[in-house]
């Protein structure tokens, strides 16, 4: 019995030795041809040991049954052909972690452990020789727990680790695994998975608390107590030094000559700031240059660099006359007129211009800066210097004259403005203190002329010369060709003439005279203190105020005289307080003149008649009152006197 027990012990020991030997044959110690290597390494503070169950053994081991899970494997691999790696029939190709085996799932289902997959990518094209590992990169992947269909999929954490930063013990561990993984068909080379890289898999040891099946609890490696890192004292952020600043002072010369950008005054800028500056002249000024440190002092838009306090002044000079169409400046109005083309506009700035202008068939606009502004009109003066007409329109001209004071002209006809065979527009002017020795102290219109004379003030002009003409304010003569001006909305006051103190219509002229104020004018020798119509003329005199005019001679017509085969239409006027030394304080009409019939009241002071039926009057719709004639007799016609 004792001998039997001894043999039993020996047999047991032999069985244990065989068992231990058979268990160790399936695992590699990590010893390569280069020597013994410690294959453990640390990732994220966890000691990791590579699984030395080389995948090549799967392909070489005839004991592996196709379709069965890999022995000693915690993971399933899927090749690039979509198959699960279960045997040597599909060993070649690219492999990814597909999921856990059922057994591994029980161990890891409730944990979010990190799995490590290391892909070695040789730089050579020899299928992955082990000597190429020193020139590769190691890509670390992370498995993120997501219990979908019982699998844990893989997520790339996109961390590329240069080979020189990989711990040497990690490289040695990989080399040890590779040295034991040989291709069954090619013993000299590492297994060729897709010819460009080999994937070696590792896993983290399982903690005892999560082991479902009885498994010996490994002795945990004590975690060294980390040395606390001292908190660095924060370096105080230095207070930024504010930039140096300088002042830019903008100015203009003369005041009112223009504006600047930036505006006139002081402005602050950081050092070395480049500031855009601009000068804009006022209407009657032009830019000259910059005084100061402008980059280009001779152009209106330039720059200045703020490397110190700066003062710049925009200098302007006053303009006289300029062509607004072309932008050209001129020293005289006449020079601007001579250079102008049809349709151009010439603008004259306020000031007094001693010139006698001739506008001959130019067909332009000649105006002040603001013809509708009485202040501008008063300040923009063309002075004839008593040496001829101030402005002449000739040669069929159709120009426009607007917004001037026309003064001190002296001529035979048209001391202020002379119009011959032309049809200009004369508008918004003051025509004052001009004289004519014949006709038209203020304006004279002659021969085939059809001007439009409107919104002017015509005052203080005279046609008192010995030549015997008339029209202190406006005179016209159609002796060589009928004229028909339109005279409207003018104020015609305090003018004197031999006849027609305000207006004289003479010799085959047919003007329209409407909506004017004709007051305070005097005919000193002839008739028509306000208006004189003489010698075959056919004017329309409508809707005017004709008052306080004087015909100081016995020829009559303090307000209006109609004379010598003329046929005016006089209607809707207010004719009041006019005086004559002769007949017709309001209107005096002599033989062979026809007026529009109208009903009037017979008899009474203020309506004179001679050889006319009491129910017929040669005027229509006028208010005629308060006029005085020298005789004071009703039959002589204080207001209206007709000779039939």
From TrEMBL:
Query: Which ranges are annotated Pro residues under compositional bias?
Result: 215-243
Q: Where is the Right handed beta helix domain?
A: 431-592
Pfam families on file: Beta_helix (PF13229), Flg_new_2 (PF18998)
State whether keyword Methyltransferase applies: no
Q: Which UniProt keywords apply?
A: Repeat, Ubl conjugation pathway
Tell me which NCBIfam families the record gives. para_beta_helix (TIGR03804)
- This protein is called Right handed beta helix domain-containing protein
Origin organism is: Atribacter laminatus
């Amino acid at each position: 019995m004792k001998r039997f027990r001894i043999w039993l012990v020996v047999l047991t020991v032999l069985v244990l030795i065989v068992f231990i030997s058979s268990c160790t044959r399936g695992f590699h110690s990590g010893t390569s041809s280069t020597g013994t290597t410690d294959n453990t390494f640390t990732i994220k503070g966890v000691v990791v040991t590579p699984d030395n169950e080389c995948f090549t053994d799967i392909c070489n081991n005839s004991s592996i049954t196709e379709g069965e899970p890999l022995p000693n494997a915690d993971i399933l691999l899927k090749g690039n052909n979509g198959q699960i790696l279960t045997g040597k029939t599909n060993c070649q190709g690219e492999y990814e972690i597909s999921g856990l085996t059922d057994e591994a799932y029980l161990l890891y289902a409730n944990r979010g452990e990190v799995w490590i997959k290391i892909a070695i990518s040789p730089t050579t094209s020899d299928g992955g020789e082990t000597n190429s590992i020193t020139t590769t990169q190691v890509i670390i992947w992370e498995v993120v727990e997501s219990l979908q269909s019982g699998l844990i999929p893989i997520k790339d954490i996109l961390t590329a680790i240069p080979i020189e930063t990989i711990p040497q013990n990690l490289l040695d561990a990989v080399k040890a695994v590779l040295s034991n993984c040989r291709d069954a068909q090619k013993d000299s080379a590492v297994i060729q998975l897709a010819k460009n890289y080999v994937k070696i898999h590792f896993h983290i040891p399982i903690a005892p608390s999560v082991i479902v099946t009885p498994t010996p609890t490994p002795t945990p490696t004590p975690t060294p107590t980390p040395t606390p890192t001292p908190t660095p004292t924060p370096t105080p952020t230095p207070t930024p030094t504010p930039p140096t600043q300088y002042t830019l002072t903008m100015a203009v010369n003369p005041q009112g000559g223009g504006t600047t950008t930036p505006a006139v005054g002081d402005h602050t800028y950081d050092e070395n700031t480049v500031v855009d500056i601009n000068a804009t002249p006022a209407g009657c000024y032009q830019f000259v240059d910059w005084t100061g440190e402008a980059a280009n002092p001779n152009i209106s838009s330039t720059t200045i660099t703020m490397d110190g306090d700066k003062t710049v002044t925009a200098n302007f000079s006053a303009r006289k006359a300029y062509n607004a169409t072309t932008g050209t400046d001129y020293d005289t109005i006449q020079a601007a007129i001579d250079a102008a083309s049809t349709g151009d506009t010439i603008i004259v700035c306020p000031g007094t211009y001693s010139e006698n202008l001739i506008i001959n068939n130019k067909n332009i606009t000649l105006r002040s800066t603001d013809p509708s502004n009485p202040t501008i009109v008063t300040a923009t003066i063309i002075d004839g210097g008593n040496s001829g007409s101030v402005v002449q329109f000739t040669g069929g001209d159709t120009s426009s004259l607007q917004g001037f004071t026309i003064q001190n002209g002296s001529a035979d006809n048209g001391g202020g403005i002379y119009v011959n065979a032309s049809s200009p527009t004369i508008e918004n002017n003051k025509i004052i203190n001009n004289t004519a020795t014949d006709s038209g102290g203020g304006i004279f219109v002659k021969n085939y002329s059809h001007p439009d004379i409107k919104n002017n003030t015509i005052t203080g002009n005279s046609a008192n010369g010995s030549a015997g003409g008339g029209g202190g304010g406006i005179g016209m003569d159609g002796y060589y060709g009928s004229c028909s001006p339109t005279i409207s909305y003018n104020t015609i006051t305090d003018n004197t003439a031999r006849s027609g103190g305000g207006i004289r219509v003479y010799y085959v002229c047919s003007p329209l005279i409407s909506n004017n104020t004709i007051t305070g004018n005097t005919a000193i020798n002839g008739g028509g203190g306000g208006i004189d119509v003489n010698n075959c003329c056919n004017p329309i005199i409508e809707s005017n105020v004709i008052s306080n005019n004087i015909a100081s001679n016995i020829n009559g017509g303090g307000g209006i005289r109609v004379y010598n085969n003329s046929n005016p239409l006089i209607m809707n006027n207010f004719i009041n307080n006019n005086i004559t030394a002769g007949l017709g304080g309001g209107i005096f009409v002599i033989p062979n003149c026809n007026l529009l019939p109208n009903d009037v009241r017979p008899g009474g002071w203020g309506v004179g008649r001679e050889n006319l039926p009491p129910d017929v009057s040669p005027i229509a719709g006028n208010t005629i009152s308060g006029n005085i004639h020298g005789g004071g007799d009703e039959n002589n016609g204080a207001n209206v006197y007709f000779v039939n």
